């Protein structure tokens, strides 16, 4: 009995001497760590190897990582101090990875400039399908999947290439609005009862009307001269018209088309427009209002 008391006294004395250089915070930390390790050992009695659960590792790493390395080496642990520090590094890495995850599921949105470029290529090249557009983007250095190009066209309501290759009358007017003119003769009666034919041209985009003259007898020479006046007027205004739409009225001689052709302007003959579509007379009335 005396021998046992002497042994306990000596061991307690050595324990007191070991705790003297440690601060109160360090002692508290060591006590908590030892208690937790005892819990781990009690939970695994009878096993050959001590196993720490993820919760045990998080607890010990959060508890011990602030201790200086020399103090950490004096703490009685079932693992090496470097293992505890590695647990702490892994904890920070997982926390950073969780915060870096995107809040929105799925792939990131396509850059707006890429969407604009895809729609522009589809609009300016009606015969190109999404695979041809995808190939042209790769040539330009834009790396995007072919399925993404298909999704962009689908969301914008752009149909397949065979459907886009057929140019409708309304589509022609929209695509060439800035370079498109329409001309026609308007009939009017003066106060004296004289019937006059007014030759007018309207810009499809601006709705600006140019009155090139009025005559009771629109002869071929008079209409050809009106075409020359139109060309000079467009050149003075800096207007780069490419198309002039006219109907099949017999007042327009062949010389009228030739004058415009020499000026680089193509004459487009309007067909009988379908119901609800655009016509030259409608444009003239709308512009006059």
Tell me briefly what this model is.
This protein is an alpha/beta fold and 289 residues long.
Structure description:
By secondary structure, the protein is an alpha/beta fold. It is 54% helix and 12% strand. The chain has helices spanning 2-19, 24-43, 54-64, 69-74, 81-100, 112-124, 130-139, 146-155, 161-164, 169-175, 220-237, 254-262, 280-288, and strands at residues 180-189, 195-203, 209-215, 243-246, 266-269. A five-stranded mixed beta sheet has the order 3-2-1-4-5. Helix 2 runs antiparallel to helix 3, helix 3 (54-64) crosses helix 5 (81-100) and helix 11 packs parallel to helix 12 (254-262).
Distance between the termini: 122 Å
Tell me the overall shape: rod-shaped
Beta content comes to 5-15%
State the secondary-structure class: alpha/beta
What's the alpha carbon Rg, rounded to whole Å? 44 Å
Q: How would you characterize the largest beta sheet?
A: 5 strands, mixed
Order of SSEs: HHHHHHHHHHEEEHEHEH
The largest sheet has its strands arranged as 3-2-1-4-5
Q: Low-confidence runs (pLDDT<50, min 5 residues)?
A: 272-281
**How many strand segments?**
5
Note the total helix count: 13
Share of residues in helices? 40-55%
Mean pLDDT: 76
């Amino acid at each position: 009995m005396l021998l046992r008391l002497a042994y306990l006294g000596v061991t307690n004395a050595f324990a007191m001497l070991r705790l003297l250089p440690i601060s109160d915070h360090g002692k508290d930390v060591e006590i908590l760590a030892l208690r937790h390790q005892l819990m781990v050992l009690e939970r695994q009695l009878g096993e050959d190897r001590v196993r720490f659960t993820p919760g045990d590792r998080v607890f010990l790493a959060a508890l011990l990582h602030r201790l200086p390395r020399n103090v950490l080496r004096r703490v009685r642990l079932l693992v090496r101090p470097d293992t505890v520090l590695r647990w702490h590094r892994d904890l920070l890495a997982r926390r950073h990875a969780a915060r870096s995850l995107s809040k929105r599921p799925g792939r990131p949105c396509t850059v707006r400039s890429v969407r604009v470029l895809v729609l522009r290529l589809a609009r300016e090249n009606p015969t190109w399908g999404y695979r041809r557009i995808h190939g042209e983007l790769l040539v330009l250095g834009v790396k995007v999947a072919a399925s993404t190009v298909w999704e962009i066209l689908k969301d914008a309501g752009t149909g397949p290439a065979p459907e886009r290759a057929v140019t409708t009358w309304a589509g022609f007017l929209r695509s060439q609005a800035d370079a498109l003119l329409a001309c026609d003769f308007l009939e009017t009666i003066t106060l004296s009862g004289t019937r006059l034919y007014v030759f007018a041209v309207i810009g499809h985009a601006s709705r600006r009307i140019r009155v090139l003259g009025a005559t009771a007898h629109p002869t071929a020479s008079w209409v050809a001269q009106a075409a020359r006046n139109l060309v000079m007027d467009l050149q003075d205004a800096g207007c780069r018209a490419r198309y002039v739409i006219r109907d099949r009225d017999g007042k327009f001689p062949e010389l009228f088309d030739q004058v415009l052709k020499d000026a680089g302007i193509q004459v487009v003959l309007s067909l009988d427009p379908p119901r609800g579509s655009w016509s030259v007379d409608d444009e003239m009335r709308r512009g006059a209002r």
